[in-house]
Each structure stands twice: as C-alpha cells, then as structure tokens.
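Students often ask why inverse folding is considered easier than folding. One informal answer: many sequences map to the same fold, so there is more than one right answer. In these notes we will look at a single instance of the problem. The structure comes first.
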C-alpha cells in the first residue's frame, strides 16, 4: 500500500470542528473567542513505552490517552491532534486496530485528527515503531491550571488509584523473563493490565478543576517525582500521608513498602494530582461524584525550609518512611 493510500484509508476521518483537516500541507482550526490554545506532545517508542506485540487497539488508545491526560492536567478541553508515525511494514489488520482504538477515544472526546506525518521505520518489524502525537486543546484565557500555583496550607489531592500500572508492568516483565507467575500473580495481572494498557485520561475532571485546583499535573512518571515538579515550580514542600494513598485492591494487599513503591515511583497511572485550598473540600467531593472519579486527599503543602522537598508520614510505620526519602520518579537519562 502506498503512503498516500495508507493515510487515506486509516488516518483520514471526518472532523467536526476543524476548518481544514488531513490532505493539505497543514491544518487550520480556530480557537473559540476568549480562549487560549493548549499544546502538548508525547512520543511512544517501542520497547521503551510499550511492548511491540501489545494489542494494536490498546496502543492506539494509549498513544492518544497520554496526550489527553496532559491537556486535562492544564484544565483544557481537547480539540484536535496530529499523528506522526515511523511505521514498519505492518499489516492492514494492525492498522485498522491501531487507528480504531485511537479514533474511538478521539470521537468520545470530540477531538479531531487534523494531520500528521508518516515515514517508514528503519527496522521493519514492530520493534521499530515510533508514535508521536501532538494534541491541541483550549482553555478560557488565563484559566489554565499551572504547576506553579500551590500555596502553603493547601491540601494535596489525587484522582483514582496509583500503582496499578506499575504493578502490572512488573508482573509482565517477570512473565516475559521466563520466571513465570504464581496463580495469584496471574489473577492480579488480569485485573491490573488494563491500567497499564488502557489508561483513562481524566479529561472531564481536569476541566472541572479549573478555578478550584491551585496547581495540577498528571501523574505519568510516578507521584514522588511528579509532585516534586509542582513543589519546585511553586517553591513549597509537602507532607504526604502514605497510609492515605489510594491503591487498587491488588496493590493494597502487597507489603506496605512494595505497595508504596509502586504508587510513588511507578509510572503510567495518568491520574491527576493537584493542590487546593482547604476551604474547597466540600466542592471537591461534589466534583468527584459529579464526574464519577474518586478523589483522595493525601497530604498538605508546607513551607519549603531549605529546598522544595516531599516528606512522608505514616501512622503504621516510621522506619518504612525513612526508606522512602529520596524516592524519585522515572527518568529516561
Ligand atoms: P507533506 O509532504 O506536505 O508534509 P504529507 O504527504 O506528509 O504532506 O501528508 C499529506 C497529508 O496527510 C497532510 O495533510 C498530513 O497532515 C496528513 N498525514 C500524514 N500522515 C498522517 C498521519 N499519520 N495521520 C494523519 N494525517 C497524516
Ligand atoms: Mg510529510
């Protein structure tokens, strides 16, 4: 199939609010009056961000989901995205699944695929696959939720649960190493795998938190490292109550230090972590029920003594808390 037929067949879809989509040298779209355009880019590399043999439908979904998660973290409404691919010689079924998974999520959030680029990958099996999506959203001018707004005394909140995706990845790696999984591990993986392969971007929640959250980001590389970005940008510290961390049942049942390690240093959760004034608690509980996403208060913002630091406390144990000092998130280099 030629590059052009491939684009036409799999990556040209009707748009709902784009002036000019796929087919010209560039796309045209308008941002609503009184709004700013929010732009984010996320690249997924085979072998680094996903197993090359992952279900193509899930991969298409995730490639867009991680970008929508970044838009959500700014409080933005998704509008459109471009898709750049370094594509090995894949078959029609793979392409149909990949674009199907991606477009299902795109249509759900009314986010138009407006363009992209398609090149042949260097390696001609799926190990050579590279996917880059740039997503565009909009926010009322000045209303985006930045990392820099956390104030001393604010609560720290997180959506959903943490650590499930990292636990699933650990089990999959163990399985792939040939070590084998116990029946209990296999059962856990069955439940948690979805967290890793089909993350749910908190798009509606992110927008609902505009004007409520003082600072926000999405948790993609582990809460410990990610929250530190907020603390540095806001020049504050925070104390997290480790006992309050919301964990999936299959992670909760591990020993406390392992569970916390998955929750705090594992990646791929794509939950929103934000700070908010303590006077907003009732409102936040209402938002949680309205959008159907659980919100958990996990700590407080405190003054930065020396430099922005993440502290932990636990009523269960003090020696574990010592082990946790210095835990960071995932870092590519
Ligand atoms: P050019 O050579 O001018 O950059 P291309 O031949 O690369 O244009 O692309 C032709 C059209 O197809 C453009 O509108 C481009 O945005 C779109 N396109 C290319 N690859 C993709 C893709 N993977 N997904 C969506 N649109 C794509
Ligand atoms: Mg091109």
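Output (designed amino acids):
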């Amino acid at each position: 199939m030629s590059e052009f037929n491939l684009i036409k067949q799999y990556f040209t879809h009707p748009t709902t609010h784009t002036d000019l989509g796929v087919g010209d040298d560039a796309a045209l779209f308008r941002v609503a009056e009184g709004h700013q355009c929010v732009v984010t880019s996320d690249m997924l590399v085979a072998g680094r961000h996903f197993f090359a043999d992952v279900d193509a439908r899930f991969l298409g979904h995730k490639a867009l989901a991680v970008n929508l998660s970044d838009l959500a973290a700014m409080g933005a409404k998704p509008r459109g995205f471009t898709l750049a691919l370094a594509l090995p010689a894949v078959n029609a079924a793979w392409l149909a699944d990949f674009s199907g998974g991606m477009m299902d999520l795109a249509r759900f959030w009314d986010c138009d695929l407006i363009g992209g680029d398609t090149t042949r990958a260097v390696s001609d099996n799926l190990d050579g696959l590279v996917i880059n999506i740039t997503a565009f959203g909009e926010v009322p001018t000045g209303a985006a939720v930045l990392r820099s707004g956390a104030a001393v005394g604010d609560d720290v909140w997180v959506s959903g649960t943490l650590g499930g995706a990292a636990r699933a990845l650990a089990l999959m790696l163990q399985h792939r190493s040939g070590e084998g999984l116990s029946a209990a591990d296999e059962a856990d993986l069955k439940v948690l795998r979805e967290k890793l392969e089909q993350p749910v971007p908190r798009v509606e929640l992110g927008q609902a938190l505009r004007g409520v959250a003082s600072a926000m980001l999405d948790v993609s590389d582990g809460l410990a490292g990610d929250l530190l970005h907020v603390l540095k940008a806001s020049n504050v510290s925070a104390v997290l109550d480790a006992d309050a961390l919301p964990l999936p049942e299959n992670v909760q049942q591990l020993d406390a230090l392992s569970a916390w390690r998955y929750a705090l240093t594992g990646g791929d959760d794509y939950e929103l972590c934000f700070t908010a004034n303590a006077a907003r608690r009732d409102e936040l509980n209402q938002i949680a029920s309205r959008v159907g996403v659980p919100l958990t208060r996990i700590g407080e913002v405190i003054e930065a003594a020396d430099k922005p630091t993440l502290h932990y406390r636990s009523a269960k144990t003090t020696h574990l808390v010592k082990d946790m000092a210095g835990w960071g998130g995932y870092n590519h280099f």
